[in-house]
Amino acid sequence: MRLSTPEWWYSRERVMPMTRALLTPASWIWAAVTARRIAAAEPADPGVPVICVGNLTVGGAGKTPIVREIAHRLSAHVLARGYGGTLEGPVRVDPALHTAREVGDEPVMLARDLRVWVARDRLAGARAAAHAGAGVVVMDDGHQNPAVAKTLSLVVVDGETRGHEWPFGDGRVVPAGPMREPLKAGLARADAVIVLLPQDLPQVDPELTRLLAGPPLLIARLKPTEPPPSGPQLGFAGIGKPWKVERALKAAGCDLADFAPFPDHHPYTARDLQWLAGRAADHGAGLVTTEKDWARLPADWRARVTPWPVRAVFEDLTALDALLAQIAPARPA
């Protein structure tokens, strides 16, 4: 069973104090096990440069749009674990043959315009890509996975800091907070940090900039590639932070009649979809969702739902190219 990301994880205020206190001992164990596993590992060279695009929190940082932009810029192969899929791999994803249930939603989405591999064993996946002719592999997630030698480690941070919302919550590790490991430990292994901002935030919070001091800092923005569909819409999303999709649709001018959140990577059932269709009919609305969610829909439902694509746009391409030049020359934008 997939659980929704607790929204209180991302609050720095003293919300859910009893729950946080009860879960804190388990978070100490999680952090200790992660640190020991990373320290004891001997990363193996897969025979090809590997750029890891990871994060320090559980879900919702925006890694996949960054992976897509970097992979396009370097004409690289993408390597993913295939979360939620049944195939262990290594297997190259064919969007005409594979479904999200087999290889995961993000690989199906990315494989529409990139060469994508899925493998539970990241090292085996990187080697398979290298054997198939990859000059560079961009690994989607894996900052805490020490099996593969990383040529470049990039950490993506959600830069949205509205109200009490903070990308790291109060800094506690899972399950007491959103952190996969303590912030200082994760940043120490990063070659650069990419802060991902929504289109309507003017700049990175100065306090967040100070907190991330150390590795080079790049800024990217999530921008829609097209306007949301016209007319009333019922939005839905099953991602790490579904409330951000609702916020983004409204900011883009969508006439959002209602919004339904689901757990991350939620496998939509016929019952879910009939319920959504009924809610939309009640409002005289269409259905709109993310590209990632659309990839998980049954084929007969895709014509009934509009995917709303977004992309990551870097503010300073010169800085990005200088960073990637350590791996391979950048292609023209």
Can you put this structure into words, describing what you see?
- The protein has 2 domains: 50-223 and 312-324, Rossmann fold; 226-308.
- It is 32% helix and 21% strand.
- The chain has helices spanning 17-40, 63-74, 100-103, 105-110, 122-131, 183-188, 206-211, 242-251, 270-283, 291-294, 299-302, 317-324; strands at 50-55, 77-80, 91-92, 115-118, 137-140, 152-158, 192-198, 217-224, 232-237, 255-261, 286-290, 305-308, 310-314.
- Strands 3-4-2-5-1-6-7-8-13 form a 9-stranded mixed sheet, with helices on both faces. Strands 10-9-11-12 form a 4-stranded parallel sheet, sandwiched between helices.
- The chain is globular and about 55 Å long.
What topology emerges from the helices and strands here?
Elements: H1 17-40, E1 50-55, H2 63-74, E2 77-80, E3 91-92, H3 100-103, H4 105-110, E4 115-118, H5 122-131, E5 137-140, E6 152-158, H6 183-188, E7 192-198, H7 206-211, E8 217-224, E9 232-237, H8 242-251, E10 255-261, H9 270-283, E11 286-290, H10 291-294, H11 299-302, E12 305-308, E13 310-314, H12 317-324
Parallel strand pairs: 1-5, 1-6, 2-4, 2-5, 6-7, 7-8, 9-10, 9-11, 11-12
Antiparallel strand pairs: 3-4, 8-13
**Largest pleated sheet:** 9 strands, mixed
* Content-based structural category: alpha/beta
Shape annotation: globular
List the helices and strands in order.
HEHEEHHEHEEHEHEEHEHEHHEEH
Helix content: 25-40%
Going by CATH, the architecture of the largest domain would be 3-Layer(aba) Sandwich
How many angstroms separate the termini?
41 Å
CATH topology term of the largest domain: Rossmann fold
Our count of domains comes out at 2
User: How many beta-strand elements?
Assistant: 13
Task: Please give the radius of gyration in angstroms.
Answer: 20 Å
Q: What is the level 1 CATH name of the largest domain? A: Alpha Beta
Low-confidence spans: 329-333
Strand fraction: 15-25%
The spatial strand order of the largest sheet comes to 3-4-2-5-1-6-7-8-13
- The overall average pLDDT, rounded, is 89
